[in-house]
Amino acid sequence: MTTTTKGTAKVTTPAAHQILITREFSAPAALVWRAYTTPELIKRWWAGQRGTVTSADVDLRVGGRWRYVMDAGGHEVAFRGEYREIDEPARLVNTEIYEGLPDPDDHASVVTVTFTEQDGQTAVRMLCEYRDQADRDAVLESGMEGGMQESLDALDEVAAGL
């Protein structure tokens, strides 16, 4: 059995409109990619311990759309976006929109995820680019890091178990 890690994602702010998340995963890039992009597997990790994923729709092609919904104790949380670049299993670029905001499309971010494998482990780098510093800071102040750590811990477990 592969040993996974918990709470090891690092969050930095390389520019006023960016958040960079980096984490090592205990599985090859192809398996991390599969867990990251397959609806049935997304349902097992995306909510972390914050709720239950009720929907994970993925049309994994350039121009295709995605949408994830979770029930967080009777409160629905939904994100959606569009795929801009796909280079399996090395790079994925998509927009990300939190549907709970007023005028959510005005606050879309662009997320570039890279998967770099070495010796059966995968380094994942997620660069989130927001329209401005105010949007970036709102995300940081939302408590996103705790939920993100839980989600990525669960992603590591799912990928390592494939």
List the helices and strands and how they pair.
Elements: E1 10-12, E2 18-25, H1 29-37, H2 39-45, E3 52-58, E4 65-71, E5 76-87, E6 91-98, E7 109-118, E8 121-129, H3 133-141, H4 144-160
Antiparallel strand pairs: 1-2, 2-8, 3-4, 4-5, 5-6, 6-7, 7-8
Helix pairs in contact: 1-4, 2-4
CATH architecture: 2-Layer Sandwich
Share of β-strand residues: 35-45%
CATH topology: Alpha-D-Glucose-1,6-Bisphosphate, Chain A, domain 4
**Rounded mean pLDDT score:** 96
- The ordered H/E elements are EEHHEEEEEEHH
The residue ranges in which pLDDT falls below 50 over 5 or more consecutive positions are none
Global outline: globular
Tell me the count of domains: 1
| Name of the CATH class | Alpha Beta
Calculate Rg over CA atoms: 15 Å
Within CATH, the superfamily carries the name START domain
Distance between the termini: 11 Å
Give the neighbour order of strands across the main sheet.
1-2-8-7-6-5-4-3
Strand elements, count: 8
Specify the biggest β-sheet: 8 strands, antiparallel
Helix content: 25-40%
Number of helices: 4
**What class, by secondary structure content?**
alpha+beta
Can you describe what's shown?
The protein has helices spanning 29-37, 39-45, 133-141, 144-160; strands spanning 10-12, 18-25, 52-58, 65-71, 76-87, 91-98, 109-118, 121-129. The longest helix is centred in the C-terminal third of the chain and has 17 residues, at 144-160. It has 162 residues and is an alpha+beta fold. The mean pLDDT is 96. Helix content is 26%, strand content 40%. It starts with 9 loop residues before the first strand and ends with a helix. Helix 1 crosses helix 4 (144-160) and helix 2 packs across helix 4. It has one domain (10-160): START domain (Alpha-D-Glucose-1,6-Bisphosphate, Chain A, domain 4). The chain has an 8-stranded antiparallel β-sheet, with helices on one face.
